[in-house]
Design brief:
The protein is α+β, with helices and mostly antiparallel strands. Helix content is about 40%, strand content about 20%. The chain is elongated.
């Protein structure tokens, strides 16, 4: 019997806010444990929550990024559970009235070529709600430690429809969510810092059936590879259980990356186990339509929409747009440089080849941020113009770029100071070319016999004689004429 996997994801995303969701305590990563707390975070008697408005606005931005319907009113509920990472013994969340309802995420499946995007599809969203994060537990062989620095930070939970059917689709979904929210300034989505975490609900059913199977939930998958590997393992495990005559139990399971298996943690809870009830300390929030529309107008162009525009209007290949478009800052850098010089292809090639190479190698601790680069869009545009005007060859332009990256000087100044302008004087070049041809009759004979590559040895002599400054286009024209 053939089986089909049915997967739903619950993605937890830390919102980019200066302070936590119900208190003025700042949130930061890497601080000394338990230093970002106060009576509200620690749920001391008499401490009352005060809502952070920016968290609501960031949720609206998230919802608009995915075409969600933004609710007119959202409210707060208490989700009761007893665990050391929650000092309240309940979590403030949105069960009855979430902010974002419905929506969809565009994903790209593997299979792209140089000029053609891979297959795209949309994964439906059930809702996105806002809640407070919990602390972080670190487990050892004999005990566990808890750090409440993360507790109380603003956390969005995005719940998909059961519309994902493979581990590859789940990975594409997470990559698309991260790309979209980073571009919108909603979150940094750094999984290593716990800013994006994922729970995966997995079930299998006979192919062609529309009835959902019994699902299991993999908790707190903290890397893209972990999500992929856990889902792949769990699909195979459930199919083996069914084929062996067994029954899949509704469970919460833990993924062990070292052994590559999932193991049972506990029976899966149902909603009534959490004893949801309205929070008595927080009033419902009404979202004015005019405020929502104001945010909508300021939303950035979506990455896949930008990519289609670059490919259709600027004729850029997929291999180029797939590097530029996922990074909003990089694509804005490109657009500014392109507007200054008018050559989209040359501008894009310099950015994704030369600029990214230099940025990556500029720091021993990691890639240098684009905003810290001395090379700005005007530098790139000027370099493109020098190439288009025949002042620089593409090879010489690479050397100029490296100098430009180090010094921050404009390319025209570097060319002038180092005497790098290529030779385009046809009379002078013809004399050098004739001498090179006369010095290598064997290569000439091979070329005239049909071995086109034989001419490269003559070109090498020309470049050596001109110290690499000969204009390649003019050299080709003269050589073609002289060699017949």
């Amino acid at each position: 019997m053939e089986f089909e996997a049915v997967i739903g994801l619950e993605v937890h995303i830390q919102l980019k806010t200066r302070t936590k969701i119900f208190t003025r305590v700042p949130y930061g990563y890497g601080q000394e444990p338990n230093t970002l707390t106060n009576p509200v975070v620690m749920a001391l008697p008499g401490a009352l929550p005060v809502l952070n408005q920016e968290a609501i606005l960031q949720m609206v931005r998230m919802g608009l990024s995915f075409d969600c319907r933004i609710a007119d009113v959202c409210s707060w509920d208490r989700k009761s559970y007893f665990y050391p990472d929650s000092p309240k013994n309940y979590q403030l969340t949105q069960n009855a009235q979430p902010i974002c309802i419905g929506g969809k995420v565009e994903i790209e499946l593997p299979g792209s070529s140089r000029n053609v995007m891979g297959e795209h599809k949309y994964i439906g969203i059930h809702h996105i709600h806002l809640e407070e994060d919990v602390g972080k537990l670190t487990h050892f062989s004999g005990d566990s430690l808890v750090d409440y620095n993360r507790a109380g930070s603003a956390l969005a939970e995005l719940v998909t429809l059961p519309a994902i059917h493979s581990a590859e689709e789940a990975v594409a979904f997470l990559n698309s969510v991260r790309m979209t929210l980073v571009a919108a300034g909603v979150s940094d989505c750094d999984m290593e810092k716990g800013q994006m975490r994922c729970d995966a609900n997995v079930s299998v059913r006979p192919k062609g059936s529309d009835k959902l199977g019994t699902r299991t939930e993999m908790k707190n998958l903290n890397s893209i590879s972990g999500v992929r590997d856990a889902i792949q393992y769990e699909i195979k495990r459930q199919i083996n259980v069914i084929n062996g005559g067994g029954t899949v139990n509704q469970q919460t399971r833990r993924w062990n990356a070292e052994s590559g298996v999932t193991t049972a943690m506990r029976d899966k809870e149902d909603a009534h186990d959490y004893r949801y009830f309205p929070d008595p300390d927080l009033m419902p929030v009404r979202l004015p339509r005019e405020e929502v529309e104001k945010i909508r107008i300021g939303m950035p162009e979506r990455s896949y929409e930008r990519q289609r525009r670059y490919m259709e209007q600027l004729n850029l290949p997929y291999t180029v747009t797939s590097v530029l478009c996922p990074d909003r800052k990089l694509s804005e850098f490109f657009e500014e440089a392109y507007q200054l010089c008018g050559n989209a292809q040359a501008t894009a090639n310099i950015i994704i080849n030369d600029l990214l190479r230099e940025l990556f190698g500029a720091s021993e601790t990691g890639s240098l941020p684009l905003e810290e680069s001395r090379v700005r869009p005007g530098h790139v545009a000027s370099l493109v113009k020098l190439i288009d005007q025949g002042v620089l060859s593409k090879q010489m332009a690479k050397d100029v770029f490296s100098e430009m990256f180090t010094s921050g000087s404009m390319p025209e100044k570097i060319v002038e100071e180092k005497g790098l302008a290529q030779t385009s004087d046809s009379g002078e070049l013809e004399k050098i070319i004739r001498e090179a041809i006369d010095s290598d009759p064997a290569a000439v004979e091979q070329y005239r016999s049909g071995n086109v590559k034989a001419i490269n040895s003559i070109k090498g002599k020309i470049m050596k004689a001109t110290k690499g400054k000969a204009n390649p286009a003019i050299v080709d024209q003269i050589m073609t004429r002289l060699l017949g």
